[in-house]
């Protein structure tokens, strides 16, 4: 099923023509309503009339997170305050949070994007969907919630926390679909198993997982333990929230809601746009947003865009999984290390649970990487609570990590349940280095 047949299956020519028209409109809108953009465009000697087709996008300036911070809180807002009906904020680890205001039309478009996504997952009006993304300033909870209601399914605003109660609700209400971070899905599975609830007695069949990077191995694990089909959902608050892109039944990349968010991939060092198929930093331009439209926003997310005939019938450009962030890519002893690489190695070993933490430190002038990982309960119960097998596992994992990362890591295998659980986005890395 397709929610918006017209927009989701448009021919490429029609889509590009629509994007061109919308781009001209949004550039003209920010030129007249956001002093920050007017100044930037004037400095570059560009007027809205220079933007005639979507190909002209390369003439426009980039926008960065720093620009949002410098204009905190409302400096990039284009709509008058009287038109704003919701405000979200994204936390970030340093500096001011990013504030995003939405008009009524923005919320309607966002809800439709979510309804497109849920329909692609096979969710219908007959489903009961529990939303275990945090409700609050984070866009996950309310964003998904409005989408479920727009679709006409029943939304259960479970939010995060009180996981046992949530498991009971899943069981008692016959909840069929769930939206949460992939790490919380694993936490739910663990809790369910501890409570002695068999996945076969549940009606769960669809999961909408996103807000943090995850891998195919993790998908397999969640699917097996919760007995559902898990789909990827991607988004960011600056552009909208969840559902800038979504997987379809093919589960081969995520369709971008391209009539609203125009995607590009650029080289993060030279800032040159890259062709489809190359990996680089993802950049989005909002084509219809009223509250806080952004031109060429640099997401820092690294991924690949591609355009192929999708068997599901949708014609939109797709994006691959997020491979990491250009800013949380670790550079350890001069070598680029993505936490996702470590996760893949960990999950390729049957004894290891998908629970890990990377700790980077500096001893003298040398960077060190420690990888802490939990052993799976069933192995722990079979003698992995003693020194010898743990030592062997640490050695084996260390060797695998060295061959994949090209640097050595100290491995510490931990008992099940010892690493901290998160309710929202997981923290996989602690970088203790003080760089001078
Ligand atoms: O995480 C919005 C969201 C909520 C998406 C619920 C999906 C589901 P922010 O808090 O602004 O917004 O964080 C955005 O999270 O730039 C990515 O680095 C990361 N991210 C989001 N979805 C995925 C995903 C929400 N599916 C940042 N895979 C983005 C990998 C993701 N990373």
How would you sum up this structure, described in words?
By secondary structure, the chain is an alpha/beta fold. Helices cover 33% and strands 25% of the residues. The chain has two domains: 1-326, ANL, N-terminal domain (Rossmann fold, 3-Layer(aba) Sandwich); 330-435, GMP Synthetase, Chain A, domain 3. The strands form four sheets. Strands 3, 4, 5, 6, 7, 8, 9, 10, 11, 12, 13 and 14 form a twelve-stranded mixed beta sheet that branches. Helix 5 packs across helix 6 (139-151). The protein is globular and about 70 Å long.
Q: Which residues form runs of ≥5 with pLDDT under 50?
A: none
Task: Tell me which ligands are bound.
Answer: 5'-O-[hydroxy(phenylacetyl)phosphoryl]adenosine
**Helix proportion:** 25-40%
What is the CATH C-level name of the largest domain? Answer: Alpha Beta
Distance between the termini: 55 Å
SSE topology:
Elements lengths: L4 H4 L3 H22 L1 H9 L21 H6 L13 E7 L7 E6 H17 L7 E4 L7 H13 L2 E3 L6 H11 L3 E4 L1 H13 L11 E5 L5 H11 L2 E8 L4 E7 L6 E3 L4 E6 L12 E8 L10 E10 L11 E2 L4 E2 L4 E3 L2 E3 L1 H9 L4 E12 L2 E10 L1 H8 L2 H19 L4 E5 L14 E3 L5
Parallel strand pairs: 3-4, 3-5, 5-6, 6-7, 17-20, 18-19
Antiparallel strand pairs: 1-2, 7-8, 8-9, 9-13, 10-11, 11-12, 12-13, 12-14, 15-16, 17-18
Helix pairs in contact: 2-3, 5-6, 7-8, 8-9, 10-12
Bound molecules: 5'-O-[hydroxy(phenylacetyl)phosphoryl]adenosine.
């Amino acid at each position: 099923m397709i929610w918006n047949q017209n927009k989701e299956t448009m021919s490429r020519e029609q889509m590009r023509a629509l994007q061109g028209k919308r781009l001209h409109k949004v550039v003209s809108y920010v030129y007249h309503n956001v002093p920050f953009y007017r100044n930037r465009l004037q400095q570059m000697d560009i007027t809205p009339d220079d933007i005639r087709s979507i190909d002209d996008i390369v003439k426009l300036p980039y926008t960065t997170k720093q620009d949002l911070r410098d204009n905190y809180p409302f400096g990039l807002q284009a709509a008058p305050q009287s038109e704003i009906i919701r405000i979200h904020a994204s936390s970030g680890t340093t500096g001011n949070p990013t504030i995003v205001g939405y008009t009524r039309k923005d919320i309607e478009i966002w809800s439709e994007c979510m309804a497109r996504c849920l329909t692609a997952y096979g969710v219908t009006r007959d489903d009961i969907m529990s939303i275990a993304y945090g409700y609050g300033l984070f866009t996950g909870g309310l964003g998904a919630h409005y989408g479920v209601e727009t679709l006409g399914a029943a939304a259960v605003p479970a939010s995060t926390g009180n996981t046992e109660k949530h498991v009971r609700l899943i069981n008692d209400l016959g909840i069929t679909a769930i939206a949460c971070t992939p790490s919380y899905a694993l936490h739910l599975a663990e809790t369910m198993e501890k409570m002695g609830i068999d996945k076969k007695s549940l009606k769960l069949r669809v999961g909408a997982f996103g807000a943090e990077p995850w891998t195919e191995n993790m998908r397999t694990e969640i699917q097996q333990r919760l007995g559902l089909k898990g789909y990827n959902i991607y988004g960011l608050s600056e552009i909208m929230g969840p559902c800038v892109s979504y997987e379809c039944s093919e589960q081969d990349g995520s369709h971008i809601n391209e009539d609203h968010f125009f995607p590009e991939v650029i080289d993060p060092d030279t800032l040159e746009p890259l062709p489809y198929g190359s990996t680089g930093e993802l950049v989005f331009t909002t084509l219809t947003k009223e509250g806080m439209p952004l031109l060429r926003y640099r997401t820092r997310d690294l991924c690949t865009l591609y355009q192929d005939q999708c068997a599901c019938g949708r014609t939109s450009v797709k994006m691959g999984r997020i491979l990491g962030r250009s800013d949380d890519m670790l550079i350890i002893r001069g070598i680029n290390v993505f936490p996702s690489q470590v996760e893949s190695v960990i999950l390729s070993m049957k004894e290891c649970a998908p629970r890990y933490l990377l700790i980077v430190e500096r001893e003298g002038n040398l960077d060190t990487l420690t990888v802490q990982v939990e052993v799976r309960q069933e192995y722990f119960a079979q003698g992995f609570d003693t020194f010898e097998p743990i030592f062997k596992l640490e050695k084996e994992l260390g060797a695998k990590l060295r061959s994949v990362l090209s640097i050595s890591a100290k491995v510490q295998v931990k008992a099940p349940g010892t690493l901290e659980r998160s309710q929202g986005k997981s923290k996989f890395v602690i970088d203790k280095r003080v760089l001078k």
